[in-house]
Design goal:
The protein is of the alpha/beta class and 301 residues long. It has a single domain, classed as Rossmann fold. It is 36% helix and 15% strand. Helix 4 runs parallel beside helix 6.
Length: 301
C-alpha cells in the first residue's frame, strides 16, 4: 500500500493566496485549533457555502450580532439541532434550485458525541446531502472544560473530582458514523493543513452525508502553551492517538503516516490535563491506541 506523510504533500497555492472567508478579528483564544480549522475548511469549500452553527465555542468566536467574521451565510441553531438545522437548510436550497451550495453543520464534540448525536444519526440514516464537521477539543470548553464523550481516558476536567480523571475511553465516533453507511467519513487535524484543504475541496463532488472529525486543540482546556497547539496536535497523530484517514464508499485510506515514533506517554506529558494519570492508565492508553491503529491498518487489506 502507498504511504504518504504531510511532508510529501505540497500545500496548494489556494491555501496561502485564496479568498479569505474567515476574516481576522475572531474572538478565539490564542492557539485555538477550531478557528484555524474553520479558516482552512472555508478555503476548500469556497463562497457557495452555508454554515449551521449550534451552541459551542465557535458561536462566540464568530462575533456578536450585527458583526461576523464569517463571509458566508451563518445560521445559529440550538445545541442539539445542528444536523436537523442543516437538513432544513438543504431542503430549502434544493427548492430554490441552489444545489451547488454546500450546507455545513459545524459543531463541537459536546454537540456531536453527546447532545447532538440523535439529530446527526437521523440525518445520516436519511443520507441527507449535508456536510457535518465536528471540531473536537475533547471537552465542553465553551462552558468551563466539562467532561464529554470525546474526553480521553486519563484527562482531568472541571467535572471530575479533585485530582481525579475521566476513567472511560473516548467514544468511537468514526465507527458510529460508518455504521450508518454514509458515503464519506474522514478525520483531520490542524497540524496538517494541506490534508484539511484537500478533504473539504473533495466533498463538493460527493452527494449524501459527509462527516469530518477534526482534532482541535484548546490551550486552556488541554493546559498547554498557546504556541504549542500545532506541535501537540502533530504528536497526537505521530503517536497514533488520532490517526488521519478517510473512508470513501467503504474504501479506507490512511492519509498521514507517523513521521517518527512517539509514545502515548510522550504525547500526554505535553498537557497539564493528564497530570494526575497513573502509570497503569498510561499503559492501558498505549495498549488501546495500538489496538485501534492495528485494526485501522487491517481495514486497508
Amino acid at each position: 500500500m502507498e504511504r504518504t506523510t504531510q511532508r510529501m504533500i505540497e500545500i496548494p497555492r489556494d491555501v496561502m493566496t485564496g479568498e479569505e472567508l474567515w476574516q481576522p478579528g475572531v474572538l478565539s483564544c490564542q492557539g485555538c485549533g477550531g478557528s484555524l480549522a474553520m479558516k482552512l475548511a472555508l478555503k476548500g469549500l469556497g463562497r457557495r457555502t452555508v454554515i449551521v452553527l449550534p451552541a459551542c465555542c465557535m458561536s462566540i468566536i464568530v462575533g456578536a450580532y450585527p458583526y461576523s467574521t464569517s463571509q458566508v451565510p451563518l445560521l445559529h441553531v440550538p445545541f442539539e439541532t445542528a444536523a436537523a438545522g442543516a437538513s432544513g437548510v438543504r431542503a430549502a436550497l434544493d427548492i430554490r434550485g441552489e444545489e451547488d451550495v454546500v450546507v455545513m453543520a459545524w459543531a463541537g464534540d459536546g454537540g456531536t458525541f453527546d447532545i447532538g448525536l440523535q439529530a446527526l444519526s437521523g440525518a445520516a440514516e436519511r443520507n441527507e446531502d449535508i456536510l457535518y464537521v465536528c471540531y473536537d477539543n475533547e471537552a465542553y470548553m465553551n462552558t468551563g472544560i466539562q467532561r464529554s464523550g470525546a474526553t480521553p481516558a486519563g484527562a482531568w476536567t472541571t467535572t471530575t473530582p479533585d485530582k481525579a480523571v475521566k476513567e472511560e475511553s473516548k467514544k468511537d465516533i468514526e465507527r458510529i458514523m460508518l455504521s450508518h453507511d454514509i458515503p464519506y467519513m474522514a478525520t483531520a487535524s490542524v497540524a496538517y493543513p494541506a490534508d484539511i484543504y484537500a478533504k473539504f475541496k473533495k466533498i463538493r463532488s460527493i452527494k449524501g452525508t459527509k462527516f469530518i472529525h477534526i482534532l482541535s486543540p484548546c490551550p486552556p482546556g488541554w493546559q498547554i502553551d498557546s504556541a504549542d497547539s500545532i506541535k501537540v496536535s502533530r504528536m497526537a497523530t505521530q503517536s497514533n492517538v488520532f490517526p488521519i484517514y478517510e473512508v470513501e464508499n467503504g474504501k479506507y485510506t490512511i492519509n498521514v503516516y507517523p513521521e517518527k515514533e512517539v509514545t502515548v506517554k510522550e504525547y500526554m506529558k505535553t498537557q497539564g490535563r493528564f497530570r494526575y494519570i497513573t502509570d497503569d492508565a498510561v499503559n492501558a492508553a498505549q495498549e488501546w491506541t495500538d489496538r485501534k491503529w492495528e485494526k485501522l491498518k487491517g481495514m486497508l487489506k
